[in-house]
Structure formats: C-alpha cells, structure tokens
Amino acid sequence: MTPDLKVEIAGVKFENPILTASGTCGYGEELADIYDLSVLGGIVTKSITVKPREGHPPPRTAETSSGMLNAIGLANVGVDKFIDEKLKFLEKYDTKVIVNVAGARVQEYVDICARLADCPRADMVELNFSCPNVDEGMEIARDPLLAEKAVASVKKVFGRPVIAKLSPNVTDVALIARGCEAGGADVLSLINTLVGMAVDIESFRPRLTNNTGGLSGPAIKPVALAMVNKVYKAVKIPLIGIGGITSYQDVVEFMLCGASAVQVGTALFVEPDAPVKIIKDLKKFLIKRKLNKITDLIGQLKEY
Amino acid sequence: MSKITVEQATIERKKELGNSYFAFEISPFSKVKAIKPGQFVHIKIPHTDIYFRRAFSVYDVHPQKKAVEIIFKVFGRGTALLSRLHPGDHLDILGPLGNSFAFPTKKETALLVAGGIGMPPIYFLAKELAPIMTNKSKAVFFYGGNSRTDLVELARIKRLGIRVVTATEDGSLGFRGLITKALAKEIDGLSGDCRIYACGPEGMLKAVDRLALEKSIPGQLSLEAPMPCGIGICLGCILPLTAGGYTRVCREGPVYNVGEVRL
Predict the structure, then answer these.
(1) Is A131 labeled as catalytic in the residue annotation?
(2) So what's the pLDDT on residue B134?
(3) Over 80: is that where the pLDDT of B136 sits?
(4) Which has the least CB within 10 A, A130, A145, A251, B148?
C-alpha cells in the first residue's frame, strides 16, 4: 500500500508536507528549470514588500560550518510585479502557493495582504516578522502584543489562512507564538535564521557588508527542533518546521516534535532537487515503519 | 524537459598541470551536448564539511563520451579537497548553468583574452569558433599569467590552429608584462572589425572593459563571484550594473557585454 503523504493545515490540503522556504526558492522559476514544481507540497515565495527592494550590497552571503550566513536585505520585485508576473507563472503548477510578506509597519502587511486577498492562487500568506537583516520589522517579531495586532489586522483583510513566521532571536519564542495565536494566526512557521557573524582575518572586516547576517542550514537544526517542540506545547494551532532540513530523517524529527509540515530552505542552494528525494525517501520510511499516513508522526515524540 | 540537471558522475581522468592547477574529465553528464562556451557547472565536493558547491567554467566537452572537462587552481579548502580526489571518485554535478558567449560575425576578428585560471571558457569558445572560421587569422588567442607555469595547456590551445599571443609578468614566456598591453598593441595594428572576449582576474577584466569602451569595440567578459547556489535563487552572487541595480552572475551571467557591469 502506498503511504499517504497528504497533510491538511488550517483547511488547506497539501499533497505532501514538503514546502520550500521563503528566500530560498525565488518565485519558483529557477527551480522549475530542474523539476516540475507540482511535486512540492507547497512553495513559499520570497518575501515581498510594498515597493521593490534591491537589497544589501555584496558580499551578502558567506559560507560557514554546516550552513551559511546571508544578509540579502529582502531584495524582491515588490507586490505589483509579484502579482502580475510571478504569481501568474506559479498558476501553471499543481502545488499550494504561500506568499511570504514583509513590511516595516503593520499597515504594510495589511496593504500587501489586502492586494493578495484578490488573488485566489495565493493559498495562504506567511507573515515574515523575523528577517534579521533589515532594520525594520524585528519589533513585531519580539513584541507579542504587536505580533498579535499585526496578525489580527491581516486577518481582517485576507480571507484565507494566515501563517506567522517566528524568529529565534527572541527571549521566549513561546510567548510570541501565543501572541500570534491570540491575534488569530491559523498556523505558525518556525524558525527564521539566527543572527550570526563571520570575520575575514585578512582584512579584519566582517565577511558581510551588513556586518551580521542570518545563519541557516544544518547548523541551526537542533535549535529549530527545540523551538518547534516548545511552541507545539504552547499553542493549539498547527506548526510548520523550518531549519536545516536536508533529508527525510530531518523531516521525521520535525514532525515528531510537532510540525505538521516542513519547509526546506538552504538545502536548495546545495541540492536544488532535495525535496524530490525527500518525498521519495519519506514514502520508503513510512512503509518500513508500517505507517499508513504521514500525519501519524505529528507530535509523537516520546519524552524521557 | 528540465534544462538543468543534478547528476552523479565519475572522475574519468585527472591531470596535474603544475603550479596547483588540475584538470578533471568528468562523465557521464547527460546534458553535455547542450553546454555552450561560457557556461559553468556546479560541483559538490563529496564527503567534506564544505557546504556550498563550487562553480567551474566548462573547459571542454566530449559528447561521445558524455564528458565534461574542467580546470581549476587550488585556492582554498574546497579546491584543495577537490584536488585530492582521483579517477573513479564520484562527484555530484549540477548544470549546465549560466549564459554563454555570443559568436562573432563573419567579418569580425575574435580577440580571445585569457588570464590565468580564466582560460577554460575562452579555450572552449576558441575551440567552437575554430572549425567555423574560414580564415584562422580571424581569431587571436591572448594568454597571460604571472609566470609561464600559469599558462597551462598551451600546446592544446596551439593545436586549434589559431594564432596565440602569450605574456607573463615575469617575462618567463612571451611578452614581459600584462596581456592587456599585448591586446592593446594588436588592436592598434588591426584593420577591420573585431570583437573581444575575456575571462581572468579582476584587474585584467577591468583593463579589457576600459580598453573596449575607449576603442568602441564590442565584446563580452566572463565574470566571477562567489556562488552559493549557481541557479539564481540565493541572490548571493550579485554585482552592480552600470545602469543601476544588481545582476545575478550565476543566472543573468556569467557572460556580460563590456560596460554592462560596474567593475
């Protein structure tokens, strides 16, 4: 019997729990040169802002042990071009489209989501409260009341499910998670990148023009797992796990810790076809473990 | 059908070219026939903690053997670890990536300028141009480096049958000095249209860019930037455009018209 990889999150049906993470898959066009995007459970597009942004000057990425630092600075085409061109391109594929939205103020999230409310192919929005590479936005990530207000404001204008993406760069992630839940978030996704730094010992300068960047990749997986598990116990809404996922084993770990789905991020830079392999391997794992449904894994972590 | 593929291939041949330069022949690669001069492949260095792939311009292709050849110089840990691999070792190869050189028109003389490790894509272009050129004097291969040990595979370049001009900064081979000096001299003596193609160190590319703009000669430069993903999704390998904004070297490049990128 073929195991069932389908998951349903906030009423949205995904063919499998493997999504791409925002900022690591562009708007899908590049990955579509390698494989059919319809294999993905969903695609989370690069953060969009009201106006297009160029991002930070180079260098804005640096290789680190088991991961990378980035300070791209939310480079994106802006909401108008996104709706006119990028979303249209994604309509060809039979996968769920989650639009990641970023802003400096609550009103900007509201403005973008109001526009997206008229685009039926935007199945969900993911509110990026947590980009560590821009000056704005982090207050929402760190203030549960502001996060609650932001989610509630977006909920009023966007009629479909809203995901709040949480930052690990906070004192207590569960506190922010509860704030988002109180604001009416349908789903939480976590984690975004951790603030990090790399230094060039020849020039005595940081290796990124922004000085610091967001650390991602396998290096952050243990942090992400711990935070997913903590938030799983703190809220009732479903979670999407993010952080260093490169293999089916990683997916199983995140689901056991409470994630209903995952986003594959930095791994796409190294293995752009990682989701294809993971989906295949997950099926084999379920057969081996005699599990009929992948949802049987969610939150099944046995505590010591 | 996918334009780009990720495949497991094998190092079929390894050649040490001296002065930390190495050549690998890698096969099979199913997209070998589709590779155009100027394009590159992205290779994962196996069994190491090196996280990103490394980009290598394609030096040559052998469609019958489904083989791709690359040349690299050991610069950092990634290339050092790669140089320790042997025939029979497996590599994960992603490609073909990036854009490619536009061929010259029939009346244009192709001035092919290679500096040090920038030689591979220029050789591949010269190899593709050689058979379609009715007159071999319509192409000149300029090859420069610090010393003669930087001018690897010179015999193979010469076998293409086009004129080769060499320059070394220490004077150990060819002109003493920068290859761009030799190029400027050639341009001054040329009659008729020409087109420049260049790949090499930043200083050389800046000089070629300036020279081409000054003399209103069309041309293309193959540029380099650290490339985490190679396919355009990480936005890490950007360079500023002269017209404003940034370009992704791995996706819109690595080949740009002279004057297009702010070097």
Answers:
(1) yes
(2) 75
(3) no
(4) A145
Check A25, A113, A131, A180 and give the catalytic one: A131
Residue B262 has pLDDT above 80, yes or no: yes
Work out the angle at residue A288's Cα, subtended by the Cα atoms of residues A282 and A293, and round it to the nearest 5 degrees.
Answer: 55
Spatial separation of the C-alpha atoms in residues A226 and B258, rounded to whole Å: 51
Chain B residues bordering chain A (beta-carbon distance below 8 Å):
2-6, 44, 49-53, 94, 225-226, 228-229, 231-240, 245-246, 251
Q: Please give the distance of CA B253 from its chain centroid, rounded to a whole number.
A: 12
A1: its two tokens:
């019997």
Contact B53 A34 (CB under 8 A): no
C-alpha span between B151 and B256 (Å, rounded): 24
Q: Would you say A241 and A255 are in contact if contact means Cβ atoms under 8 Å apart? A: yes
Q: Do B228 and A68 touch (CB under 8 A)?
A: yes
The 8-class DSSP code of residue A39 comes to: G
- Chain centroid to CA B188: 25
Write down the H helix ranges in A99-220.
106-117, 138-142, 144-157, 173-182
> From first to last of its 304 residues, what are the pLDDT tens digits of chain A?
789 999 999 999 999 999 999 999 999 999 999 999 999 999 999 999 999 999 999 999 999 999 999 999 999 999 999 999 999 999 999 999 999 999 988 999 999 999 999 999 999 999 998 665 555 557 888 999 999 999 999 999 999 999 999 999 999 999 999 999 999 999 999 999 999 999 999 999 999 999 999 999 999 999 999 999 999 999 999 999 999 999 999 999 999 999 999 999 999 999 999 999 999 999 999 999 999 999 999 999 998 9
Q: Is pLDDT of B211 > 60?
A: yes
Q: Using the beta-carbon criterion (under 8 Å), do B53 and A270 form an inter-chain contact?
A: yes
What is the value of pTM for the model shown?
0.95
Per-residue 3-state assignment (H helix, E strand, C coil) for chain A? CCCECCEEECCEEECCCEEECCCCCCCCCCHHHCCCHHHCCEEEEEEECCCCECCCCCCCEEEECCEEEECCCCCECHHHHHHHHHHHHHCCCCCEEEEEECCCCHHHHHHHHHHHHCCCCCCEEEEECCCCCCCCCHHHHHCHHHHHHHHHHHHHHCCCCEEEECCCCCCCHHHHHHHHHHCCCCEEEECCCEEECCEECCCCEECCCCCCEEEECHHHHHHHHHHHHHHHHHCCCCEEEECCCCCHHHHHHHHHCCEEEEEECCHHHHCCCHHHHHHHHHHHHHHHCCCCEHHHHCCCCCCC
- List residues of chain A with CB under 8 Å from any CB of chain B: 24-26, 30-31, 33-35, 54-55, 57-61, 63-68, 70, 72, 75, 217, 268-273
Q: Which amino acid is at A77?
A: V
Which residues, including other chains, have CB under 8 Å from residue A112's CB and lie 6 or more apart? A48, A49, A50, A79, A101, A103
